[in-house]
Design brief:
By secondary structure, the chain is mainly beta. The chain folds into six domains: 105 residues, no CATH class; 120 residues, no CATH class; 102 residues, no CATH class; 119 residues, no CATH class; 103 residues, no CATH class; 124 residues, no CATH class. Helices cover 8% and strands 39% of the residues. The protein is built from ten helices and 54 strands. A hairpin with a 2-residue loop joins β47 and β48. The radius of gyration is 50 Å and the shape is flat. It holds the Pfam family MlaD. Keywords: Cell inner membrane, Cell membrane, Membrane, Transmembrane, Transmembrane helix. It is found in: Cell inner membrane.
């Protein structure tokens, strides 16, 4: 094959385009888009001059409008131009707010501020300080001067904007509250001196929901702080609320006779009165009085159930001096009760040998009492005062009853009826009974508490203070402060299930005190040798618990003893038995024994040991001269020791074996022929085998003293206890001399001292193990 037979290669001209140019082109497009986006999103820089840069941080402090960020501080420089130097903050503002950047736009720095009116800027504690902006009108501008504080609320804000004129500002401030019936309905916007420099103009804002409450004849008064009106008649405090005490405040109301007043014209200013009384917003009531002693215009209050509902504004005495016409200013809240049937009367103290009534009027001064008529009756504004409090109103809902008492005491009309120190009613009236020997009190119990009274209820006079005390202290009892001042009646119902009285107006006795009203239990008479330290109220106790008390102490007819009239209030059926024992517990003081030391402070008391069996019933007892022995026979070996003299021995002193206490002396008596003293001892069961027929007993009381030239001096005593109080010791010989076991009741001689041989005896005698 030749070269000519080979195929020919086809040739194609090379292209001038390369794919490598795509990447630079894409990068160019992205760069152009980023540049355009940065240009279109770039903020508008404005400069705001502040007096200080404190609290402003570059790239951190934001510009906030209605809670939304619209810019931030990007630069902070000193302003050296002019005499009033400061700092220039450059703000980068969002382009969307460019149309709001005009000459009257205002900027100010918001930071936390604590004043008496409250706390503002609290949110900056978390987010930090920020610059607030309020758009305004005018020419476009990029240079501004910041305000030193937040601007006042604009007049364009929905609501009522009113101007008040006052002689002085008082404690009012920006944001001080405006009240209507103690509900905050607005606030103070701003204040300034009037153009004549003689008054203060205060601008306030009322929320839209309450704007209709302000009428043409509405009265405004300062409710700032506390108003104090003091005199011999008492001290009167008035304040609108706790907030107004601290931050000041303004209250307003429309007088009752101006309720048809048209809406106010916001352009006309109102006068701001100094006080509620000066504003004269209360309801005007005329009252004719026949007794007007002690009443003072501007100070005497009108009181309903202890609450002031009005004040005596003026008092005009008629020409005959026998009556007077009073003008009362009543609280608008009492309007519905100023109707037919409302009663007014003068309350004043009455002091006599029989007691004091109306004590609260003695402290506060005379006042005018009020009892409203039925709600819904015809309105009335003129009344004639009653000469005294109105009688019991039997038509009022609730329980009406009568209490009978020997004396009225400090009770008066309106005195409270108390149940567990809760007021559940009041005394409505009082008068003498038909025979003039008793006092009848009309009482009213509120409907919700009527069920507390039934046939078992007991009433007592809870007026004043009861003092009881002794060396242990003084106990002061008073049912309540109200009963201390105005008198009062308390009651209890021991049996809540008892049936109620069927009488239309039940009658109950009014006891002098709670104890006499609720006394129960059994009456006993206890005869004691001496009444030293015993008195009415001395407790009767069993195992440390009070089971009764002595009610009366008197001499017996033969003058040889003292009779205690006592009442047992617990376990009476067991105590009022022939087998019960009573004795007086007094302090015991000795060198080695002291007991009942609490009676040094509290005084002696009566201890009782109830009948252990079922003895016949008994109400007259003779107290034991001392604490009786235990009624339960103690286990052990009872023996008798015979001695010519008792010495210093007494019941309870120890019986020892090798200086270990193994028993005690239980008692003593003269022998049959009165020539010996028989001493009873009790050996504990575990140590009974130690006593044998050969045992020897001797008196260890006191001490022995031997002296000789050769052997010197020897001092002998069993123990410090036997040295002071006495005691008995014994020893048992060894071997055949030991003898048999002692039998109960066996008699042994008691020697004055031990033989030296006895002290050497040391027999081995097995003892029972002590049970644990």
């Amino acid at each position: 094959m030749t070269m000519s037979d080979l195929p020919e290669a086809r040739t194609r001209p090379a292209s001038t385009w390369s794919a490598i140019w795509v990447l630079p082109l894409i990068a160019l497009l992205i760069g152009a888009w980023l540049a355009w986006n940065a240009y279109s999103q770039a903020g508008i820089e404005v400069q705001v001059r502040f007096t200080s840069g404190e609290g402003i941080q570059v790239n951190k402090t934001e510009v906030i409008y209605k809670g939304m960020p619209v810019g931030k501080v990007v630069e902070l420089t000193l302003d050296d131009e002019g005499s009033n130097k400061g700092v220039i903050a450059t703000l980068e503002m969002n382009k969307k707010v460019e149309s709001y950047l005009r000459s009257n736009t205002r900027f100010w720095l918001v930071r936390p501020r604590v004043t008496l009116a409250g706390i503002t800027g609290l949110e900056t504690l978390v987010s930090g300080n920020y610059i607030a902006v309020s758009p305004g009108d005018g020419e476009p501008s990029k240079k501004f001067t910041a305000l030193s504080e937040e601007p006042p609320l604009p007049d364009t804000t929905p609501g009522l904007h009113v101007t008040l004129k006052a002689e002085r500002l008082g404690s009012l401030n920006r944001d001080s509250p405006v009240f209507y019936k103690q509900i905050q309905v607005g606030r103070v916007k701003s204040y300034r001196l009037a153009e004549d420099l003689s008054t203060v103009e205060i601008k306030i804002f009322i929320e839209p929901a309450y704007a209709h409450l302000v009428r043409k004849h509405t009265r405004f008064w300062s409710a700032s702080g506390i108003t104090v009106d003091a005199g011999l008649g008492g001290v009167k405090f008035r304040t609108e609320s706790l907030a107004s005490i601290v931050a000041g405040g303004i209250a307003f109301a429309t007088p009752e006779n101006r309720q048809d007043s048209p809406p106010t014209d916001p352009r006309l200013p109102f006068r701001l009165y100094d006080s509620f009384d000066a504003a004269q917003t209360g309801i005007k009531v005329m009252l004719e009085l026949s007794d007007f002693e002690g009443l003072q215009a501007g100070r005497t209050p009108v009181v309903y159930k202890g609450i002031q509902v009005g004040i005596l504004k003026t008092l005009k005495i008629e020409s005959g001096l026998s009556s007077a016409t009073a003008e009362l200013t009543m609280d608008p809240l009492a309007e519905d009760f100023l109707v037919e049937g409302s009663d007014f009367w003068v309350v004043k103290p009455s002091i006599s040998l029989g007691g004091v009534t109306g004590l609260e009027a003695l402290v506060k001064g005379n006042y005018i009492g009020m009892r409203p008529g039925e709600k819904g009756a015809a309105l009335k504004r003129e009344f004639v005062a009653r000469p005294k409090a109105p009688p019991l109103d039997l038509g009022a809902p609730g329980l009406h009853l009568v209490l009978t008492s020997d004396t009225l005491g400090s009770l008066d009309i309106g005195s409270p009826i108390l149940y567990r120190q809760i007021k559940v009613g009041s005394v409505q009236s009082y008068q003498l009974s038909r025979n003039r020997r008793r006092v009848l009190l009309g009482v009213h119990i509120e409907p919700e508490y009527s069920s507390l009274v039934n046939g078992s209820t007991r009433f007592w006079n809870a007026s004043g203070i009861t003092l009881t005390g002794g060396l242990s202290g003084i106990e002061v009892k008073s049912e309540s402060l109200q009963s201390l001042l105005a008198g009062g009646v308390a009651f209890e119902t021991p049996d809540p299930e008892a049936s109620a009285s069927t009488r239309r107006i039940p009658r109950y006795a009014l006891h002098a005190d709670r104890e006499s009203a609720l006394q129960a239990g059994m009456e006993l008479q206890i005869r004691v040798d001496s009444g030293d330290g015993l008195k009415a109220g001395t407790p009767i106790r069993y195992k440390g618990l009070d089971v009764g008390k002595v009610e009366r102490v008197e001499l017996s007819e033969d003058l040889q003893s003292v009779l205690l009239k006592a009442r047992i209030t617990q376990a009476g059926e067991r105590i009022a038995r022939a087998g019960s024992l009573f004795w007086v517990v007094r302090p015991e003081l000795g060198l080695m024994r002291t007991a009942n030391l609490d009676t040094l402070v509290s005084g002696p008391y009566i201890e009782v040991r109830p009948d252990p069996g079922n003895s016949p019933r008994q109400t007259h007892f003779v107290a034991a001269p001392q604490t009786p022995a235990a009624s339960i026979k103690e286990a052990g070996l009872n023996l008798v020791l015979s001695t010519p003299r008792r010495g210093s021995l007494k019941a309870g002193v120890p019986v020892t074996y090798r200086e270990v206490t193994v028993g005690k002396v239980t008692g003593f008596e003269l022998g049959p022929n009165a020539d010996r003293v028989l001493i009873g001892i009790l050996i504990e069961p575990r140590y009974a085998p130690l006593v044998r027929s050969g045992s020897r007993f001797w008196n260890t009381s006191g001490f022995g003293f031997d002296f000789g030239l050769l052997k010197g001096a020897q001092l002998r005593t069993e123990s410090l206890e036997t040295l002071l109080e006495g005691g008995i010791a014994f020893a048992t010989p060894e071997g055949e001399q030991m003898g048999r076991l002692a039998t109960p009741g066996q008699t042994f001689p008691l020697f004055d001292e031990a033989n030296s041989e006895w002290l050497q005896w040391a027999p081995k005698i097995a003892l029972e193990r002590e049970r644990k």
